[in-house]
Amino acid sequence: MGLMGFPVEHSLSPVMHNAAIAVSDLQYIYIPYSVLPDDIGPAIRSLIPLGIVGVNLTIPHKERVLPFLDEISLEASAIGAVNTVVNRHGMLTGHNTDGVGFRNALIEFDYQVSGKHAIVLGAGGAARSIVYVLAAECASVTVVNRSPERARELVETIHRVLPGAVLNWLSFEDVDKLREALIRSEVVVNTTSVGMYPHVDVDAPINLEIISSDSLVIDLIYNPVETRLLREARLRGAKTMNGLPMLVHQGAESFRIWTGCEPSISEMYHAVRSANFAIK
Ligand SMILES: NC(=O)c1ccc[n+]([C@@H]2O[C@H](COP(=O)([O-])OP(=O)(O)OC[C@H]3O[C@@H](n4cnc5c(N)ncnc54)[C@H](OP(=O)(O)O)[C@@H]3O)[C@@H](O)[C@H]2O)c1
Q1: Ligand 1 atom showing the smallest separation from residue 223 Cα
Q2: Is cis: bond before 245, omega within 30 of 0?
Q3: Domain holding 47: CATH number?
Q4: Active site positions, annotated
């Protein structure tokens, strides 16, 4: 099994999956493959002659891979992006496990989003899965993005598959509306790359001055372990979660899809925590 991306050198997925394999009875190895953007078609079809059980996909392949697959799961097709491909008897099926990873991270945290108002910062690849999950359960979801067109497009896409969901979109410049949405929201999820290593000292994407201490603030970033946004949220008394639980749980779901076996979540956590400290 493996990972196709460009670049792939800094990914924690190989260490995480190889740790799960090492404590299982399975005879697999997980290898990172650096695949140039235009090579994803032949690279993904090569799983069949090479006998590779499946791969994860990361930037820039999650959307580009779609035309080269034989089947796409409902969730991946709703989101328009694939992060997991399984090769079953020469048939390539695309899945997206980011949503399951996010849901399972919330379950592990023992947090219910149902009926709550949520804000999602960012409208890129990761935001699509998060908005899809939240839109199905929350009372409302507001997507805030630097490029408002991208937020609008994301809201319209999710609305087509979940017509009953209450979805809004804003730009970071809509200061008054953003403030109103923040006062109302109990869940804030940062899916932008703002604050990611090595740019750890840049301002948080939003000012949390008015956030309630009952809120949950999630940052999908895991390097650093606590972004400026999470630190400010914690200092205001809010509950916080970084990106490691989602990383582990999306990986665990890919592992189940490829092998039919339950991976050791604790080994996966141990591996990514050790490697995440090591790469700083
Ligand atoms: N924990 C996990 O399992 C997991 C999974 C996936 C991703 N992630 C993390 O999530 C983050 C986003 O990944 P992605 O795949 O969604 O990337 P992406 O598709 O490139 O999207 C990046 C998002 O960040 C916004 N952004 C970038 N720089 C910004 C800035 N200076 N100010 C305001 N907004 C800015 C972009 O806004 P524009 O649209 O305006 O450019 C866009 O909304 C990364 O940090 C990634 O590591 C974590």
Answers
A1: 47
A2: no
A3: 3.40.50.10860
A4: 62
Predicted pLDDT of residue 208: 85
Same domain (yes/no): 128, 143: yes
Pocket residue to mutate for ligand 1, from 155, 193, 202, most atoms within 8 A of Cβ: 193
- The confidence score (pLDDT) of residue 20 equals 98
| Per-residue pLDDT tens over the stretch 69-92 | 999 999 999 999 999 999 999 999
User: What range defines the domain where residue 153 resides?
Assistant: 100-242
Instruction: Give me ligand 1 centre to Cα 251, in Å.
Output: 19
What's residue 280's pLDDT? Answer: 52
CA of 32 to the centre of ligand 1 (A): 21
Residue identifier of the C-alpha nearest atom 21 of ligand 1:
124
* Helical ranges in the chain per DSSP H: 13-22, 40-45, 47-50, 74-79, 98-108, 125-137, 148-161, 175-184, 228-235, 244-259, 265-278
- How many helices (H) and strands (E) the chain has is answered by 11, 12
The pLDDT-based confidence of 220 (bands split at 50, 70, 90) is: very high
- pLDDT (tens digit, 9 = 90+) per residue, 172-191? 999 999 999 999 999 999 99
